[in-house]
Write a structure and sequence with these properties.
mainly alpha; 4 helices; rod-shaped
């Protein structure tokens, strides 16, 4: 279950890398063709295309950014406001493996409390990972839309005289 979530995040990052490369290729191809023929173009459209490029790159980097995988594992609904939380004490947002001591204690224990604790850790890890994947997917989807918008803007700039 947790291993599959790690694979999903890895696949999402691979796709974000492809989009990031696509942003660069589109901007360089269209940008070069716009400056090559020397015709006057609408400056506002060119600026808008560059802003969309910057936003697309930012969304891709947000997907690729490292995940906070240290610290206390808390319920994602209890994640505090990021700006008010010191970086050394931020809640853990990713977990795909467990401390060997927790696993060993679970295997050696016969009481139900140990089982409940391990199940709670699994539940929190799954929910935290899901929330992180959900947020990264939103950034990825925004990057896809921005790439299409960028292609449209660059194309409009080429067509307009």
């Amino acid at each position: 279950m947790l291993g599959r979530q790690a694979a999903v995040l890895g696949e999402l990052r691979n796709r974000a890398n492809i989009l990031l490369a696509g942003n660069g290729v589109i901007a360089s191809l269209f940008g070069a063709s716009l400056t090559a023929n020397g015709r006057a173009r609408p400056l506002s459209l060119a600026i808008l295309a560059l802003v969309v490029l910057a936003l697309g790159i930012t969304c891709c980097v947000a997907v690729l950014w490292s995940v906070h995988d240290a610290g206390a594992l808390v319920d994602p609904d209890d994640w505090p406001d990021h700006a008010r939380w010191p970086s050394s004490k931020r809640p853990r947002r990713w977990r795909v493996s467990f401390d060997p001591y927790d696993v060993l204690g679970f295997l050696q224990s016969t009481d139900e409390a140990s089982f409940d604790r391990m199940m709670e850790l699994c539940r929190l890890a799954r929910r935290s990972n899901y929330r992180t994947i959900d947020r990264r997917t939103t950034y990825f989807e925004a990057a896809c839309v921005l790439l299409l918008l960028q292609i449209g803007l660059w194309s409009a700039l080429l067509v307009l005289h």
